[in-house]
């Protein structure tokens, strides 16, 4: 019983750490969010913080997983009002408010291309999941006449992910780049000719 209670406390502490880290990085940026600052935010030493994660890289990968969980919960809440693809566009739009998390994502995803990197498995699974979900949404949209019939859903999903990743890098270089607007243009190109695709143009949340 004690072991089970200890495990539950460990899970709860990890969640506390990830929630705090998400806020610190979003507020201060990835470059200035040291492990020491994250540890202090939850009343731990650096060694104490890393007791819950195998490495700094794993910690940051789990921060991104936590961000994905928050975005997914928001999408599920709004699922009756917007499509998955439009939800994706809105997520890109919101990213402009959290440059620290965008910087963390772009840096860590580049480093994680190395199969030996602690975050490699996370990014590989994230890519597979995203491509599968968006490809399925595109197929449903094709069946409803909302997407071009000649699109290859799997390739289109890959293009959306590549565009989003590339736009985040461009935005970090030049904050005047409107990421959501460019994703909207790509979605518009996927719509049938003459279709009034509300998901293709920026809209208010």
Automatic annotation (TrEMBL):
Keyword Transcription regulation included in the entry's annotation: yes
UniProt keywords, alphabetically: DNA-binding, Repressor, Transcription, Transcription regulation
Lineage top rank: taxon: Bacteria
Entry-linked SUPFAM superfamilies: Homeodomain-like (SSF46689), Tetracyclin repressor-like, C-terminal domain (SSF48498)
Annotated HTH tetR-type domain residues: 11-71
Residue ranges of DNA binding: 34-53
Matching InterPro entries: BetI_C, Homeodomain-like_sf, HTH-type_TetR-like_transc_reg, HTH_TetR, Tet_transcr_reg_TetR-rel_C_sf
Protein's recorded name: TetR/AcrR family transcriptional regulator
Annotated source species: Agromyces tropicus
